[in-house]
Every structure is written in structure tokens, then in C-alpha cells.
Amino acid sequence: MALTTYADIINAACARIGEEPVQDFDDDLGGGQSALLIYEETVDFNLGLQPSGFFFAREVRQLSKLSVAAPFTGFSHVFEVPQPAIGPPVYLTDDPSDPNRRYTSFILTANQVHAADNPLYAMVKFRPDPHRWTPTFRSATITALAGHLAFAIASDRGQRSDLLTLAYGTPQENFRGGMMRTALNEDAFANPAREIKADNNPLTIAWRS
């Protein structure tokens, strides 16, 4: 059985702790609404553990220019950060065809971008459907979710602690150990660090101009 929906992930976590699957996510009498809230919180937190964004949970979007907003910061344009998104943009660019180009002359305030150039684009993180997750991220998330549900459903602190340690490692690993470390390491191969251009600095640019 493929785990392709949020219901599949939640019920896989329930099976991990020996609980019956949730039948109705609109009715909280059976814990459906609570389980869905815990699912969303856990997934968003796990996606946030990769600052540059997991490769399956980030994409380039064009910023939407606000025609009625006053750019009180002195810039010419005000843009909205494209939604839905998790956290601030990973980076901005004025040329999405150049993967190394970064736009830095902007101010990010109140979930808006103030800048002098138009158009602009942003790499944003978002919450993808489970069918897009990697197997390593899916297993780590199901394990973490099972830990949270073990306490929410059965008030079992011991099982919660064991499962969260399995998912994230020890407290000293800052949620980047355990199964999540495998997911982060796998993603690192898809998001390699880009080479810093030594000539991309104000002095060199001024000398060449």
C-alpha cells in the first residue's frame, strides 16, 4: 500500500503505536481533528530542519507586486511572498535561469519584500503532499508523528520518548540525528553547496565597471 495522503501517514503512525486507524478527520470525538493538527505541526517542523529546503519541498515562484502598497523603505516596489510557504524565502533572484545568481538589495518586512527591481523571484519552501516525500523523510516523519500521538492518545511518555529519539536522535543532536539524519544526508546530495564566486564582491565589481 502506497502512503500518498495525510490520512495514510497519520494511520501509519497510529499502526506504529498499536492504535486503530482514524476514520473521520472532521470529527474530533475519535481524535481525527487533533491527529490532523499534530500531523501538520510535525511535518512543517520536519521540513524546517533543512534551512535550504528539501528538494521535494521547494520551488521557484515569481513574487506578486502589490500595486496599492506604499514602499516606505525608499524602494520602488513592494512584493508579496508567494503562499503557501513555510518560513522566509530561501533566496531571491532577478534571473531564475541562473542558479548561482542571488538578489541581495531588498528588505523583508511583514511578510513582504521591498526592492528596487521588478520582476523578482523567490525560492520558497512549502508543504508537499506525502506522495512527493522521499522514503527516508517519510519514515522519519511517521516515527516522529507516532511519538506525538502516543502521548496525545495514550498519555504514554515512555513510548513518546523512545519514538522521538528514534526519529531525531538525542537532544544534543538538535533534532538532526536518528532517522532524520538519514533524510538530511540524502537531501544534501540533491542540494549541494554552490561554489562561492570569488569575483562577486563590491570591490571587483567596481573595478570592472
UniProtKB/TrEMBL annotation:
Domain of life: Bacteria
Protein name: Uncharacterized protein
Source organism of the structure: Rhizobium straminoryzae
Lineage: Bacteria, Pseudomonadati, Pseudomonadota, Alphaproteobacteria, Hyphomicrobiales
